[in-house]
Amino acid sequence: MKHFRDYLTEAKETGIHFKGNIDASNCEKLESLGNLKSVEGYLYLKGCKALKSLPSGLKVEKNLFLYNCTALTELPNDLEVEGSLYLKNCTALESLPSGLSVGKHLNLQDCTSLKSLPSSLSISGDLNLQDCTALESLSSSLNVDGSLFLSGCTSLKSLPRGLQVGENLFLTDCTALTELPNDLLVVYRLDISGCSSLKTLPLDMKIGFITGASKKLKEQYKNKYIFK
Predict the structure, then answer these.
(1) Are 77 and 122 part of one and the same domain?
(2) Domain residues for 124?
(3) Cα(40)–Cα(149) distance, rounded to whole angstroms?
(4) DSSP three-state, residue 218
(5) Which one, of 54, 71, 15, lies nearest residue 38 by Cα?
(6) Where are the beta strands (DSSP E) in 158-213?
(7) What pLDDT, in 10s, does the model give residues 175-203?
(8) Sequence-distant contacts of 199-206: CB under 8 A, at least 24 apart
(9) pTM of the predicted protein model
(10) Are 148 and 203 members of one domain?
């Protein structure tokens, strides 16, 4: 694997395109990627704590790893990641751009400043928003083909109408959540462990099975839903 430091001179030129993988992990003084335009493989930027932004027009053909980029405040509107995008613990990131394109999974776990998602966001894999404690709502048109992880989203008060989750939906310890949409669709598991403000369930949800429900909810809806 080529290391990003090997290309620092090249990156000052216009329109740099890399073949293969680039590893800039733990380059703690790296503030920008210059005019990097595309990476044909994986791009590793884990632990780049001074990195504040990415170049406009960047395309990554496989996965983009941005773990612990704690100074990253925004992403370019035209960022394209054909594989998965990992933004875990990017604590300064408040929002995502409307033009963001992600081919597979999107991981935003521990992005504690994230307040909203773009209305155009559609995820063909998993969407991980676990412990995004500032997140109050999801976009009205959001659909997730894989699993949706919302555990620990303590500011989340509701889910959008028409939400469809192709695998599992985890709502563990979403303590501000007071209701679920009547037309919620979850193909497999809905976990509501620790949802202390959720006192009732709508009658027309389409759910594989429910875990973490209180004894009261289990008794009240035992003829409507499968509880495990």
Answers:
(1) no
(2) 115-228
(3) 29
(4) helix
(5) 15
(6) 164-165, 169-170, 185-191, 206-211
(7) 999 999 999 999 999 999 999 999 999 99
(8) 201/225, 205/180, 205/181
(9) 0.91
(10) yes
